[in-house]
Amino acid sequence: xxxxxxxxxxxxxxxxxxxxxxxxxxxxSTRARAHERLMSLAGVPLDRAAVALLRQIADSEPLxxxxxxxxxxxxxxxxxxxxxxxxxxxxxxRVPDPDDRRAQRIELTSAGEEAIGRIREAGVRGMQMALSExxxxxxxxxxxxxxxxxxxxxxxxxxxxxxEAAGPVRAD
Length: 172
Prior knowledge:
Blueprint: H1 13-30, H2 32-42, H3 48-58, H4 65-72, H5 76-88, E1 92-97, E2 100-108, H6 110-130, H7 136-166
Antiparallel strand pairs: 1-2
């Protein structure tokens, strides 16, 4: 199955509104004050980059720093600095890679598991407050649609990577 080309049709009004809503929610969720409030509620003194890395580590098996960088879409040097910070604070540790004993993987410590649990709990409490007027059915629909959208975004991103790797399409 070949990747689909970029659409040439103009975006629908619905797609434009979804993009606007995602831009707004991204802005709201990445504001420094919102992060500081969340960290205060969770009792975890970490910056946004460290929290993003901690979340990624918590959501996967132990990974090499380069794999973490790829998953987060950042340079490996950024991950190295964050891993060092998280090690100093006792949230992560390096373990031997079972596939290559020369390499190391990063995993959460018990303190890291507790910290990410508190961060997620504080985030969920805020979300519960914001969505308290929504019915259970609306929440189920939103959750399902969000997961579907993320899956489609990931598929589309993978299609673009494959398309770029294949090179330009030639008309014969």
